[in-house]
Amino acid sequence: MLTMTQVHNIRKMYFEEGKNISQIARETGHDRKTVRNYLHKNDWNNKPPSVENGAKYPKLEPYKPEIDEWLTEDKKAKRKQRHTAKRVYDRLVAKYSKDFDCSYRTVAGYVAEKKKEIFNKKEGFLPLEHIPGEAQVDFGDADFYENGKHYNGKYLNLSFPHSNQGYLQLFKGENQECLFEGLKTIFKHIGGVPTRIWFDNPSTVVSKVLKDGKRNLTEDFVRFMEHYQFNAAFCNVNSGHEKGNVEGKVGYHRRNMLVPVPRFNNLKDFNLKLLLLCDEDAKREHYRKERTIEELHQEDRKALLKVPTTPFEACKYITVKTNGYGKFSLNNGLHEYSVSPKYAKSRVLVKVTAFEVILLDESHREIVKHERLYGDNKQQSMQWLPYLTQLSRRPGALKYTGIYKMLPDPLCEYLEKCNKNDRGKILKTIATLTEKSSFEKAVETITEALSYTATDTDSLINLHNNLHEKVIQLDPVRLPLDIPKLKRYAPDLAAYDTSLRKEGVSRC
Questions:
Q1: In-domain check, residue 487
Q2: Least crowded by CB within 10 Å, which of 12, 190, 232, 254?
Q3: What is the radius of gyration, based on Cα positions, of the chain?
């Protein structure tokens, strides 16, 4: 078909320049019949395009279900172990032999189109049809109390739009370690990994959104993604509503699992309970499909990738410089952690997880472990055991160290009352009590000891056991009535007097 510009030139040559059909055909290189048709054409309206109702690659129709099954199974395999068009063709030829009469070109064309459908990597939109095994991720806000302490928490939500199954994990913050820890725990619980996970564009995942819609991903997220072999997809910028299933699930989880405000002793234990609550919640009927969420989620689980046998360590390693007291800060100086006097003014390796901050020595052995601090206010976490151990070795230098000023008032007062020669033993005992229970309980024991003016190690240990250990109180032993009572023994000293007289000694 000629373009309208070419048609216009042909008609101009004939009607305005007076050239005949043969001349026009010679000069333009078009067939005489084509030139004649355009010269005599009177209707220049656009004709509506025809719609092809027939299936593409009709000769391949009997084999398409099998090819689709092979390619769908590939979602569970590593990229390098997925079917190529050549491998699909070879398998079909080997299986059906002479009955298979399709060309390689036909197979390759269909495989290419089907792969685009199954492994769709196009960004910027969500499919209207929710495919089993695909999931969406988002964080929500929720307050909670752990051991009586209030936290402005965050909770990770992972939802499966196909079944409307959702899972959540509660954290004290919204950082990369929390994201990885939450997903890792959910993957383990459900026994698989979603084939594709949809995200907004959080800084923990996306370092930069490029002009062409592509993303630069953070190195740690790419490492996490490669470990679990899932594909990541992203909403358009400022279009979180595109992953509407998880947006709705965030609110549902808050209303149904985080009201009233949760109170518990251990966050990790509470998160395990939340997973079981989510399993129980799935027994209700789907809001649109006439089946339970639990039944539909089985289709999700069949499509999941396998969980890698090698566990993923959801942490980051950083190197910090300690001050003269053997301390360092994280989160722009808001959160301060102790190490040990031994590591004052030195560089140490820190392992940071969603829950803990762990200090490591040169051989990657643990020096001390802290609960990770969260919040926008200044806080400090002090582990006293390394300091007490160090001081017990050099008690004479106690007052001349900066550590002395850091000690609680009851402990300073107690050490003042102790004999200088006994301070080393006292500090060692306090270190033992700290390791046995906690520094706070050891200080309580010291405070109690001050009221009794007891400054020896035995008194400290006994007081600590009475205050903080479970002492079994035994009832007095009562003898049966049939047991005879013994007469009180009265010694006869006459024999001793006789022996003493023989030796010339008199009893006084």
A1: no
A2: 12
A3: 40
| 72: helix, strand or coil | helix
Residue 280 corresponds to which tokens in the numbers above?
A: 């129980």
Pairing of strands 366-371, 356-360: antiparallel
Q: Rounded CA gap, 307 and 332, in Å?
A: 36
Cβ atoms of residues 134 and 118 within 8 Å: no
Q: Which domain holds residue 9?
A: 4-40
Are residues 171 and 287 both part of a single domain? yes
In total, how many domains does the chain have?
A: 5
Tokens of 257: 């699992």
Alpha-carbon distance 40 to 11, whole Å? 9
Same domain for 379 and 392? no
Mean pLDDT for the chain overall: 84
DSSP letters, 244-298, are HHHHHHHHHHHHHHS-S--EES-HHHHHHHHHHHHHHHTTSBPSSSSSBHHHHHH
Amino acid at 474: L
Residue 226 domain flag: yes
Give yes or no: residues 442 and 416 share one domain: yes
Q: 362 and 428: one domain?
A: no
Cis peptide before 260 (omega within 30 of 0): yes
Burial of 337 (0-12, 13-18, 19+ CB in 10 A): buried
pLDDT in tens, 422-442: 788 888 888 888 888 888 888
pLDDT digits over 87-102, tens only? Answer: 899 899 998 887 888 8
In a domain, 234, yes or no: yes
| Local structure of residue 17 (DSSP, 8 states) | S
Quick: pLDDT tens for 354-375: 999 999 988 899 999 999 999 9
Asked if 140 and 199 sit in the same domain, the reply is yes
Same domain, 173 and 299: yes
| Structure token pair of residue 430 | 């306090």
- Choose the final residue of a domain: 303, 325, 358: 303
Q: Do the beta carbons of residue 348 and residue 305 sit within 8 Å?
A: no
Query: Looking at residues 103-111, what average pLDDT do you find?
Result: 91
Helices (H), 258-402: 267-281, 293-303, 385-393
| Region of residue 477 (left: phi > 0; alpha: psi -120 to 50; beta: else) | beta
Which of 45-49, 81-85, 456-460 comes out lowest in average pLDDT?
45-49
Most trustworthy range by pLDDT among 178-187, 281-290, 356-365, 409-418: 178-187
Task: Please say if the pLDDT value at position 177 is more than 90.
Answer: yes
Under 8 Å between Cβ of 233 and 171: no
Angstrom distance (rounded) from CA 368 to CA 435? 12
Tell me the C-alpha to C-alpha distance, in Å, between residue 304 and each of 52, 161, 185: 35, 14, 15
Looking at residue 50, what is its pLDDT?
43
Tokens of 329: 């800060």
